[in-house]
């Protein structure tokens, strides 16, 4: 399931991110790549665990917590601390699949990467190229979103970032361990949730239909969740 979530960050939060980016030192992006992915990865990133990375990560985690669409789509159990990368002219990330398990630095915590996430910090007009290309069951999908928008997609997907031809592509990336690890079941719950919202808007909360559908939703979530 590939889902775009608009306006996750406010304009003020985007400005905060960009100021921190401009004042930060960047390291080789291979530092957080697996052995195979390191061969395909050609970008820069904020050092994992640096003060800037931790500060901006908190901004993003708070933004995710207040976003109902993210929580409905991802059903998050754990979110890996957000990382930050930049692709300058000529940089790219060739086709790869994300590691299945990520270890949170400094904590005895493992995160199963059910969902991959890219949050765009640069505006799409600030650079050419740099599209996130995701291969899924519906074919190849190219994603390049406005600043502050987020895309969620299955971490099992083969994906890549095309070479940047002009400017710089700034983004945050992270992974989500969902309460429902199966992507198909998660999609069904999300579609049911959206349908319930429409029925509530049309009939009101006192009507039997939204109450019955809500009961079905929670009983399915109870059956499928792993917490």
Structure description:
By secondary structure, the protein is an alpha+beta fold. Helices cover 35% and strands 32% of the residues. It has 6 helices and 17 strands. α5 runs antiparallel to α6. The longest helix has 21 residues, at 183-203. It is globular and about 55 Å long. The two termini are 21 Å apart.
Give the integer mean of the pLDDT values: 94
Portion of residues within helices? 25-40%
N-to-C series of helices and strands:
EHEHEEHHEEEEEEEEEEEEEHH
Overall geometry comes to globular
What is the straight-line distance between the termini?
Answer: 21 Å
Strand content: 25-35%
Write the SSE topology.
Elements: E1 3-5, H1 11-23, E2 26-28, H2 35-40, E3 41-42, E4 44-46, H3 51-65, H4 68-74, E5 76-79, E6 83-87, E7 92-96, E8 101-103, E9 110-112, E10 115-120, E11 127-129, E12 132-136, E13 139-143, E14 150-154, E15 158-161, E16 164-167, E17 169-178, H5 183-203, H6 208-224
Antiparallel strand pairs: 1-14, 2-4, 3-7, 4-6, 5-17, 6-17, 7-15, 8-9, 10-14, 10-17, 11-16, 12-13, 12-15
Name the features.
6 helices, alpha+beta, eight-stranded antiparallel beta sheet, 227 residues
Quick summary of this structure?
The protein is of the alpha+beta class and 227 residues long. It contains six helices and 17 strands. It is 35% helix and 32% strand.
